[in-house]
Amino acid sequence: MKNQQGFTLIELMIVVAIIAILAAIALPAYNNYRIRSANGACQAEAKAYINSAVAANMTPGMSAPTPKAKACSGPTTAVTTISGTTVFNPASPGDKATTCENDIGTCTLAT
Q1: Which strands, in side-by-side order, build the sheet including 98-101?
Q2: Cβ-contact 83, 109 below 8 angstroms
Q3: Other CB atoms within 10 Å distance of the CB of residue 89
Q4: What value does the CA radius of gyration of the chain take, rounded to a whole number of Å?
Q5: How far apart are CA 72 and CA 17, in angstroms?
Q6: Nearest to 107 by CA among 77, 72, 98, 45
Q7: Is 107 helix (H, G, I), strand (E, B) or coil?
Q8: Is the pTM of this model over 0.85?
Q9: Collapsing DSSP states into helix, strand and coil, what is residue 75?
């Protein structure tokens, strides 16, 4: 009697099909995770910056620092006024801007 060695072609094709199904489910979920993560990172960076800008603009003799954009692509100049809003756009692959109120430091993610 001859011993069977290795896997049959059908068994290998089933394994490849299962891996393809798992990849088809996992890749879109991973891409959505990357987008949400980029949006959240920009929102956190915007909130940290706007808090420091509000504190600096409210303190006599101080001025707000220039934002160091890492997770956000803007703004590129310091916030020098305590009125209005400032918009921070996320770096790729983010897709939702964060808007911050310059007077109170509240930031919201666009819907």
Answers
A1: 85-88, 98-101, 107-109
A2: no
A3: 17
A4: 25
A5: 40
A6: 98
A7: strand
A8: no
A9: coil
Q: Which residues are CB-contacts of 33 (< 8 A; sequence separation ≥ 6)?
A: none
d(CA 77, CA 68): 10
SS3 73: coil
Reading the block at residue 7, the tokens are 């896997």
The 10s digit of each residue's pLDDT in 79-106 is 998 899 999 999 999 999 999 999 999 9
Helices and strands of the chain, counted as H and E runs = 1, 3
Residue whose C-alpha is closest to residue 90's, from 33, 47, 41, 53: 41
The three-class DSSP label of residue 23 is: helix
Q: Which residues contact 79 (CB under 8 A, 6 or more apart)?
A: 49, 50, 53, 57, 64, 67, 86, 102
The answer to whether residues 108 and 97 touch, using CB atoms and an 8 Å cutoff, is no
Instruction: Indicate left, alpha or beta for 84 from its phi (over 0: left) and psi (-120 to 50: alpha).
Output: left
pLDDT band for position 74 (50/70/90)? confident
Residues in the chain: 111
